[in-house]
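Record type: monomer structure entry
Structure origin: computed from sequence
Chain ID: A
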Amino acid sequence: MTRPYTEQDLFGIFYSDLVWRMKELSDLKSAIRAADSVSSHVLSRALIVMGYAHWEGYVRTCARRYFEHLTLRRKTFLDYERQIYINRFLGRLDALYQSRSSIQDRCALINDILDGKVLRFTCIDQDLIDTKSNLNVGAIKDICIICGVESKLFEDNKTFIDLLLLKRRNAIAHGEQEFIPAVDIDDFVEKVLFIMRAFRDLLENKVCMKAYAA
């Protein structure tokens, strides 16, 4: 697997991962057009599921590879924006809250926070990039916070993400008769690709501008 040592490595990974997803959606769209009325109805249901899967998968891939790129730079937390350091403790904070931890454990966490900035950033807690198999606007907003990018575009597209994409996918997963009308198939695919590209662009712009730096 290619590792994103350089900016161009990272952008190449983003591009190649998007290309195969685009081709799969395009091939499915072509199959729907070529099918008879019964088969096209079934395939349109598959398109909803596939569209959501690529949305979730691409966001997760881009976020993880972005943080991998930063860890490969072998810099300390002092060299990065505050959010990257905050991310280091979010999981521990949640665990302490859930376990009703002791004073000793809480003091240990605070000491680690106070002393840890000189350490090198070596990994991201993968649980923070959690799509929860339910990548709605709330979940993508959380991932944007973790990545230190704006989420407004996704909030502006809440109707599509939460209702036309995710709610339809969930309906199919629960055995309901949900499908996309033939006249809406092109628009559906374009909007899926639009939000996927939008997330990629946010990370690419951040890397180009080196906005992750302190």
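Annotation 1: The chain has two domains: 7-75+126-208, 77-120.
Annotation 2: Residues 37-71 form the longest helix (35 residues).
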